[in-house]
Structures are given as structure tokens and as C-alpha cells.
Amino acid sequence: MASPYLNPPLCANIQEGLQCSNGADRFFCPRCRVVQYCGEACQAAHWPIHKVETCQNPLIRLNWKPLWFAEHRVPTEPAAGTDYLGLPLNDPHRHKKLWGNMPAIDILEVNRNEGEDAKEQDFNILCAASSDLRNVVKTVCRLPDEYTAKCTFVMNDFDLDIVARNIILLMVAQHMPTKEAVPAMIHLWYSARLPVALLEMIHDKLLPLIGGRFYTYWTALRMCSDKFRRDGILLPYGASRKGFVAWNPKFLQTPGVWPIQDDVDPHCGWSHEDIMAGAPKAPNDYLGSQFNMLRALLIKFCTRAKKLDVHFRMYYMGCRQLPARLVQWKEDIGLYDRVKNLYMTNVSDRCNIGPATAISTFAPLLKPLSSNPHAIMLLLFQNAVPEIDLHTSLAARLVEHQDCQQTAANYLNYPSPHGEYEERWHPDISRYRGGVNILRNFEVPFGKFVQEVGLPKLLLDQGFKMRDANEHSVTKAWPKRMTPGGSKEEFMMRLATCYSGRAR
């Protein structure tokens, strides 16, 4: 039997906690384009509430400004040695990331690599710093329909809470009926509060198995993000939150610490195109779009996780210790077809273990070309460009940014600054700077980074070569970068989301 949370009612007419249960797939509010109704009668009945909460919400206005600007004061800065939550900068809870900030990828991309041979080929995939399950889910869902071989994922992360949540999600996927598992996975993964009935169902099914930032956003996206931050529940915008009263135990691991930081958003772990493929009838309902996308993807994942010969091995340790431990524990998998060394802050950057250590540690685990000519090690550099910028003179950066400054000004109708105060603190200045960064050509600073760290020699010493940007066969070389010569619409989308473009 399907869970009542698999297809939540979408008619936004909620009166005194009771929601209309009629279908709402043909009619939406034409003003905000965020919520849906079963018809005009429910829209009229709900209008006194809806107009205040949504259509007249200041966040949806084109001329919205942050409160600090409206009150003619400077933004609040954290006290010395702390962050915006008041946590010390060395507090380990600052580094807890519930979700990734790079779009999910298919780690194998067999159509562009192994091709037809993939249907009967065993795959071993090592995720040395796995983060959440999004890349694994997408990879399993994109295995060939005729796949008959064995696919093994070895996943490791240094955050025990993330490892534990991944294990729970996989157990839910493999040991609960798909139509019950999917809503349970969505809300365990993304919602801070759960229905008591859903939490009890998870306990009943699983316990026996184990033994006893807003200004740059589009208006509607800004409002949807605000709603999520207020209630912490991933549901379509107009769906009832009634019943979501039990705190998600995988969120509140540390008493008194709220884990959703101001720079973390569920939207950031998936490509905008993937999310909008799930757009409901109300096209501006970004929460509903992500819910629908996840529901469709997880239905496929749960079905395949039960049907195909897919295996998961989970580890909890620093990634540098993983290779030696795999040998010590007599890991019987052997070498790997893909080694994915990705993490939100990224282990390959110099501020982490660095490219030399990452390559020397994990290169020996990759299958040789004689075994799989498509074997690949993926390294993510999120801080390479900022590191180079830090040591580049202001004059040199101004020359580099000259062309994209004018383009950003044209796209944003950038106003002339009015005095020193607005020059420094006007929100449009921050938005403009973000726009300039989106339009940059990052090849030049990244090329300097490659030469500084001697990346070609590091790879050559291990018998590897670095693929050119146009040779990438798993993901784009610049996953978040704006398309050269891209449209204003793409520019506004990237400015509104988490896509600065500098990750390589």
C-alpha cells in the first residue's frame, strides 16, 4: 500500500489545519505561480490567507531589499572568532554539511565510456569522501535497463552522522516497499521534522534488521527558500505541514545546535535543470519541483536497488586512512573502475589534503588501462581559483574582469552608486559582484594553479594524464560554470542559485 506521504494533496486551501483533498493538477494561482488549487472556489476561500502569506509576501517583490538595508544600518557581522551562528570558528559542528553543494553526477556515464559492454560488466566504485547519497542514487538510476552484472559501491566519509544517515537510507530503500520507502527517504534526507507515523514505520521496519543567503535569489525561489528555512520540511509549497511534528533524529545530533547553516540549501546538491524537470503545475513552486524530482528518482532507485545486483559497503574514517584499512580488512573487491574523491569542501584542495596526497593515495586503487580503458579518478577543486585570486594584484584582476563587468551591468541594469555608504553596502553591489564572478573565464587562474602545484608531473608519476576540458566523459570540467555566450536567462538562474562557476 502506498504511503499517504508519497503523493501529498496539492490544493493549497488549508483551513484550520484541514486541507482540501481534491486533485489540483490543472489550476494554479496566476499571481505568484507558486501554489495550486483544485478550482476557483478553493482559491477564493483561501485568498484571505494566501494573499498575506504569499502574494503580498515582501520576499516575492522585485524591489525587495534585506532588512539591514531598509533600516539604514550595516549588515551584522559575527563576533571575532565566531561565525554567524555564534559558534567558534574551530567548532567541529561548523563543518557538518547535511547536503552536498555540487550537482549530483552519474559517476559511471557508461554511454560515454564503456558503452554496450557495460551491460555485462562488473563495476567497482570507490567514493573516498562520499558526502550524501545523491551521486550514488543518480548512478544506480542510470545503469542500463538490461544491466545483469554486479555493481559495488564502497563509500566512506569522516562524518559519522552522514555515514549513519546513508546506511539508514539504503536500508529503507532495500527493505521497505518502494511506495513507503520513497517519502521516508525524502524526509529523512531533507526535512527537519517528520510525521510521527512515518518515524514509527521506519522504526518498526528497520530496528528488527539491526537488532534491537536570499538577496540574489529569484523572487519565487527566495520565498520558497525562506519557507523551507522556517519550517525545515521539503514538501510542495502549498501542501499541508500538519503532522510533521517529530524532529528528524539525523538532524539534531548536537543539543542546542541547528545544523542547517545559512550557506546550505537542498537546491545546491542537484543541477537546476534536474530539479526543474519535476516542476508541478505551479511553475514557480521550487520546493514542489525538488520534491517531485526526488520522488521520481527514488522510486527508480528503490526499484533498481532491489532488482539489480548492487552492493554497498560503508566506512567511517579520514579518507587518507581508507586504502590501508581496505587492505588490512582484506577487502575482496580489488581495484576500482571509478575513484571519486569529492567532498563539499573537497579533499583535493591545498587547504585539505592537497592534490599530491590525493593522487598518490588513491591512484594505486584504480584499475589499469588493460583492465578498463575507461577507468577514471575524479578530483574536485573548489578553492583553486580563490587561492590564485588571493595572490593576484587588484589591478590584474580588474583587467581580467573588464569584459564581464560590462556584461553583468547590462544584465542587471546596475545603478550608479550614490555615495560612499551605498557604494559599500547597497545590496545591488553584492549582487553585481556575484554576477561578475559568474561571467569570469576561470581557465586562466586555474591554469596558474595547475602549474603552481605541478599537477601534470604528479599525474605522470602515477602513470596518469589530466584530461582536457573537452575530454571529460563523466561530468563537465566546470560543472557550475555559465555557458560561454550564455543567455541572460541562464545568467539570472546561476545568480539565483548556488552556481558561482569556479569549481573545477
Automatic annotation (TrEMBL):
Top-rank taxon: Eukaryota
Gene3D superfamilies: 6.10.140.2220
GO molecular function: zinc ion binding
InterPro entries: DUF4470 (IPR027974), Znf_MYND (IPR002893)
Key words of the record: Metal-binding, Zinc, Zinc-finger
MYND-type domain mapped to chain residues: 17-54
The protein's name in its UniProt record: MYND-type domain-containing protein
